[in-house]
Amino acid sequence: MTSKPTCLPLLLTCAQAYMPKLVERTLDRVLNSVKDVEQTALCELLVYLHQQGVVSSADLKSGIESYTKELEDLRCALACTRLFRTGSREAGQ
């Protein structure tokens, strides 16, 4: 006789706070993966978790916003670095 694990609901409840981070990290892997198979599998995983109610729409939104914020921060830092280098060259001339 096989019994269902009783700790699964508790585990999912505890993990709910982590779901936006899961979405963020999955997006990172999808966008930085070199293999199409991995990208497809990760996207399908997010869709499946959403369909099963494990990852909510709010989790998806939060994870996407967090991921794109990091991209924006990186882009801003790169622009500032370029500006600093250009300004340094102009000051030295």
How many helical elements?
4
Cα Rg: 20 Å
Helix content: over 70%
Poorly predicted runs of 5 or more residues: none
Number of strands: 0
The mean pLDDT is 75
Quick description:
The protein is mainly alpha-helical and 93 residues long.
SSE diagram, text form:
Blueprint: H1 8-15, H2 19-32, H3 36-51, H4 57-92
Fold and architecture overview:
By secondary structure, this protein is mainly α. The chain has one domain (18-92). 80% of the residues lie in helices and 0% in strands. It is built from four helices and no strands. It has helices at 8-15, 19-32, 36-51, 57-92. It is elongated.
What would the keywords be for this entry?
mainly alpha, 0% strand, 4 helices, 93 residues
